[in-house]
Amino acid sequence: MMNKNGKLHCTTMAALVVFVVLGLMACASVTVVPVSYTAPARMDMSGINRIAIDSNDAQVESFISQKLNETGKYTMAPATELEAWYQWSERAKYQASATEVSADDLAKAYSENVARADSSYKKTLKITGDVKELGQSSRGRYYMRLAAGSDSVDIYLLPSEMEKFKSIDKGQAVTVLGEGSGRNLPDMEDTAEILRLLGAGSSVNVIDGVFPVGDYPGTVDAVVIVKKDLSVQNNSRPVTQGSNQYVYDRSVTVNIAYQVERAQDISLIGQGTKTATATSSNADRSQLAAASDLQAGIINGLLNEFANEMVPMQRTMSLALAKEESEDKEVKKQMSEAQKLVKAKDYKGAVATYGKIYAQYNNFAAGYNQALLTEATEGTEAAIGLMEALSQKTNNPMAQNMLGKMQGRNAGNQKAAEQAAAEQGGDIIESDTITDETLHE
C-alpha cells in the first residue's frame, strides 16, 4: 500500500505474490493462465451465524463488524450478549478444570491419610453430596455442610452465590465447585466459629464455593477476540555521512492477535497473529505522514485479510502452466484435453487429467501442472506434497523453485517463499498477483 508520504510493508497481506521462476527445465515454455475459483473460509465456520466481537480497540472492533456484516453470512451480537457469554464461559472453563469427587470419598481420603489427600484434593474440586446443614458464620459467610458419615465437608460460598443458596434445602443433593483447603479453615473464621463448625466431627473444607452452570443459554454462535498492539518510532538520519541535511523517518508497527471460539462449548475455531509496518520518510519533518494515518492503512489491510479467514473468497491466480513440447502424439492429445478443461474452468477435472498423464508417462509438465492446479482447488498444503514428490523424482529446478515458494506461502510468509526460490538458483523473470475478494451473499 502506498501513500504520498510513505510505504506500507506487510509481513502478511491479502494479495499473495506468485513469482514465476524459469530455470533448467524439461519443458521449453510456459503458458500463463488466469484461474478463478471459490476458496472456502480458512476457518471451519460451519453452523456459525451470530457473532460477538471483543477488542481492546474500538476502531478494530468496528471494522471487523462492518466487514463481517457486509458478507451477508453473519449477524453481530450486542455487547450485552458478549458480557453474558463471558460470565457463563468463565464459570464453564472453571468447571471443566475441576476434579470430581463425592463428599463421602473426600472425607474418607482425609480420614485415611491427610498428606496424601492434600496432594490429591488441594485443587479445584467439583463435589457432590447431601446437605446436612446450612448456616452463616459470625462474620456473615454462608456455608453448606455436606454429610460424609461421621465427618463432613464444609463449603464456604462466595457472595455471588447467595441467590442460588436461598433455594437450597436440608437433605437436598447438590453439586458445588470450589478450592479444596483440606483441614485448614478459612482465614476469616474466628476461633469460636471454628469450634462451633467442627462440633459435629472432623471437617474437610472447601472455600470460594460456586454452583456449576449448565449449557450455554445464549444465542451467540462464535466469539471473536482481537487484541491490537501499536508501536511508533521517529528517527532522523543524515542524507550522506557527515551531512548537515537530514531525512526524517516515522515507522508504525501494528500487531493483531486474534482467536475465534465456538460459543456453545468454548472450543477454538482458529487463532493467529498478523503484523505489518508502515513507514514515512521526508526531508521536511512536518510533511511526514501522521501516525494515525499510517496506522489506519495497516489496520485496513490486516483486518481485510483476517475477515477473509472467516468467509469464502473469490480468488484469481495467474498460473504459469508448463507447456509440453513432446513429439509423442498420445501425450500431446491428452495434454490438449487437460488444457481444454483448464480453459473451461473445470480445474478439478484438469487436475485429474494431468495426474493421469503424469502417472502413465512420467511427464514433467503434467505433474507440475497437477500440483499448481491442486493449490488452487485444494490448498497449498496438498500442492506441496505433489510438488515435493515431483522435485525429488526429477531434480528439476523449476519444481524445486515452486516448491520453495509454496512452502513459504503455506507458512504465511511470502519473504520465505522468495528466499527459498532464490536459494534454488532460479531467476525471477515475472510476477503475477493473486487477489482475494470476499464473496457476498
Task: Compose a concise summary of this entry.
With 441 residues, the chain is α+β, with helices and mostly antiparallel strands. The chain has helices at 58-70, 79-96, 103-112, 114-121, 162-165, 191-197, 291-308, 329-343, 347-361, 364-378, 380-394, 397-410, 414-423, and strands spanning 6-10, 16-22, 29-39, 50-55, 75-76, 99-102, 124-136, 142-148, 151-157, 173-182, 203-210, 222-238, 246-262, 267-282, 313-323, 427-438.
Present the secondary structure layout.
Elements: E1 6-10, E2 16-22, E3 29-39, E4 50-55, H1 58-70, E5 75-76, H2 79-96, E6 99-102, H3 103-112, H4 114-121, E7 124-136, E8 142-148, E9 151-157, H5 162-165, E10 173-182, H6 191-197, E11 203-210, E12 222-238, E13 246-262, E14 267-282, H7 291-308, E15 313-323, H8 329-343, H9 347-361, H10 364-378, H11 380-394, H12 397-410, H13 414-423, E16 427-438
Parallel strand pairs: 4-5, 4-12, 6-7, 9-11
Antiparallel strand pairs: 1-14, 2-16, 3-15, 7-8, 7-10, 8-9, 10-11, 12-13, 13-14, 15-16
Helix pairs in contact: 1-7, 3-4, 8-9, 9-10, 10-11, 11-12, 12-13
